[in-house]
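hiii so my PI (J.) wants the whole complex modelled not just the main chain, which honestly fair. so below is everything: two entries, each one labled with what it is. i double checked the lines twice but i was tired so who knows lol
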Amino acid sequence: MTQTTNKSLRVAAMGMDKQTQKLLEMVFNGPGRGDYVLVEQPDIAEACIFDLDGMDASKLWTKYRVQHPQLPTIILSITLQDVAGNLFVKKPIEIDKLLKSLGKIKQMKEEEVATGELPHLMVKSHAGHLSSTQTTRTAKLSSEIAVEEEEEAFHQFCGYNADINPDRSDEVEKIYYEPTNYLQGFFEKAYSISLQLDSGGILVEGLYTPMILSAERNQLFCGCDSTENQLRTMTLLPLSKSSHLRMTTLSEAEIQQRLAVGKLAAQPLDSFLWKMALWTSRGKVPKGTDLSKNIVLLHWPNFTRLIVTPHALEISALWIAQPQSLLDTAKLLDIPQRYVFSFFSATCAIKLAFIDRRLDKRPGSLTITSPDNTKRGLFKRLLARLLGQE
Amino acid sequence: MSQYKLIFTGPTGAGKTTAIATLSEIPVVKTEAKSSYRNPRHEHKETITVGLDYGLVKLKNNDKIHLYGTPGQERFDFMWEILTEGGLGLILLIDNTRVAPLEDLQFFLKAFDDFIKETSVAIGVTRMDLNHKPALADYHRELRTLGINPPIFDVDARSKKDVSLLLQALLYSLDPNLKVER
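here's the output for the full assembly
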């Protein structure tokens, strides 16, 4: 059963086929749990997800808009549907994009409540005549849709979470996730076992394609029929108890045998685990991470072969020079906490960083020791040049 | 207008000339000569750098960053000290297809030890696609024994993105609190 809270946004699903409905249920029971709840009727909903590719979709849409002209709506379709005032998510559905659209509606609803502009008190108008609130909403949605592609890509990896106040336990709770509940945890376990092997690797079965992990070679072999979207969708959904995932140890000869038989493409294992951790964590940190203790970064990540999230190089340089806690890192570098959290989660996944539990952080003023900042202006300009921002 | 310099070093064939070319705004001034000896591991390389390679990056305030590549052969090491004087930092490129890349690493870190202590170093390991051993983990182990922990990446010297990341890492090593100036 879907968990609801007072703050859960009630969302109706319209015009769905069974498969899409099932996917929505998984999203609402998985990454959307607590924030969104599916309801059967649009009459009691605060938002709607409408599938425009269904049977008689256009007739149903016209009727729906007459009956619910104000209801914030996310349109699903395989082709772009630019209907003013509505959000659009292209099929096949990418869960991140759906959650992002839902997040926008939720945020607007909260702002409306905060400003006393309650949606249910609005005067209903015909679909063609928008009320002032809806006009504002339309403009706002349109501008928000125009998010730069690059920024959008990073949201897939770092999420949207605002900075938390560490003194508020309800906020702190929100930044944790449990990797073992997701595919990430399973692969991390396989990686740990593979690290202990002198040779050979781990065969993972039960996914859409068999995969072989070899920590010794830093390689992951998997079937060519898998797409990045498929994998990302799977990383976001919590593993069910009935999951058929299993791992088996393979000798080097057995790996060679399987490689000779099947068409398995190789990719760097660390890049795979890094990306999976970013997709799963989306700006959160593994449960139990002490936010106030220093981080030990063993060495710089191999950034040329990994996804470089915003500020990742700055964070690495700081942690190598001067270990800091997660919260102090964000404060010192003056960057959103989610970038520090996502970077930490990724480095943990490839066993590159850990919390230094030995020491309590000493209170004191937070400053970064820069050996020679007389050239800072020059370095800034050169950096801007390298980033194409000059 | 101020003038600065960045130094690229490493053994012959590591990709210094190529790396400078990916960053430079001017065609790289190469001082290469036909090699009388053809290294079987670098059959593609018909020439070696006997003097300096030179490239240039101009910044918006007209500051100039001169990019110098040292000649890879040890018989030219008398030039290294003069060349590094006043340099901003060091990019060290190591060719993973050479006989003993870890020894190359040690050699160059030792040769530029004073300069690295004054500034910083970022290391790019090239041709890892052709020879994946030693792995980066082996380089990290070697660096730990030397008591340093600089950025070290798997680099394709032809890739602007790779060389740029290496240089960015060098800049952040020099000053972790850098912010991009727009």
